[in-house]
Amino acid sequence: MKVRAKKHLGQHFLIDKNICQKIADQYRNHQGCNKVLEIGPGTGALTEYLVKREELDLYVIEIDRDSIAYLNEHYPMLENKIIEQDFLKMDLKKIMGEEPFGVVGNFPYNISTQILFKCLDYRNQIPEIMGMFQKEVAERIAEKPGSKKYGIMSVIFQAFYDIEYCFTVDEHVFNPPPKVKSGVIRCTRNERGALPCDEKLFIQLVKMSFNQRRKTIRNSIKQLISGTEFDHTFLTLRPERLSVDDFIELTLAVAALNKSGQITEKIIE
After folding, report:
1. pTM (2 decimals)?
2. 204 & 128 share domain
3. Are residues 117 and 161 in the same domain?
């Protein structure tokens, strides 16, 4: 059977076998994790090379029924491991249990960041994420401080994962070809574990800072520190100058204001 790519699902089927092999080889079994969930396999271009890695216990999840039928026909070795569900809506523990598992995929551009944020919710169970994104998104996630590309996603994901930009993929290796290039990144969970600060406040500070990235941190978070005597060296900087550890330090300082009663609980939401 032939499966046509569906625009409403953001499908662009990878047709270059060399690229498929290269992506499959990039998964590094971080922290000994051999259980893997491939998201959006389509017609199994990447699956073909993942199943050849005998050490991997591979599961795939796909929402497209035509693709599900194709996968069942061509990958009988994945019996009971081909899941027809919406990744964004499912409870991953019902499929993967409590064990650690990696995530791999040629992610649909229209939901790629949502996929990453869902993985972030399960970060204690997911030691490695290996995926293809729109190049601009991949670069933004992997970017280091000091660049215009460095932003909210960079800080939030790098708080929990070490990000490596692996390689760029041209448009012509897809059917249908997208209008932009793609980028493959590897995310391996770092040793930080839980943040040493209030995670909710950390994310709020990061978002407030970059939502007005041309302003200094003081002006961007003035809603949080207005009416206080709070002073900090980071307040004179723009957000792209701050590393993850800097944002953690700033979060701890603002949280200390709250404990001292200088700011109200209502502001920190």
Report:
1. 0.91
2. no
3. yes
Structure tokens at 221: 């978070």
Band (267; pLDDT cuts 50, 70, 90): very low
Q: What is the CA radius of gyration of the chain?
A: 21
Q: What SS3 class is residue 97?
A: coil
**Burial class, 26, CB count within 10 angstroms (exposed 0-12 / middle 13-18 / buried 19+):** middle
**Direct distance between the N- and C-terminal alpha carbons of the chain, in angstroms, rounded to an integer:** 51
- Average pLDDT of the chain? 92
Q: Structurally, how many domains does the chain consist of?
A: 2
* Tokens representing residue 262 in the block: 């200088």
User: Is the N-terminal amide bond of 100 cis, ω within 30° of 0?
Assistant: no
Same domain, 143 and 32: yes
Measuring CA to CA, which residue among 50, 21, 52 is closest to residue 184?
21
Domain range spanning residue 107?
7-189
| Together in a domain, 205 and 185 | no
Distance CA 232, CA 237 (A): 10
Reported confidence tier of residue 7, pLDDT bands at 50, 70, 90: confident
CA atoms within 13 A on the CB side of 157: 31
Residue 125 confidence (pLDDT): 96
Of 162, 189, 216, the last residue of a domain is: 189
Task: Name 76's Cβ contacts closer than 8 Å, sequence gap at least 6.
Answer: none
**What are the DSSP E strand ranges found in 41-172?**
57-62, 82-84, 102-106, 128-134, 161-169
Tens digit of each residue's pLDDT (9 = 90 or more) over 143-187: 999 999 999 999 999 999 999 999 999 999 999 999 999 999 999
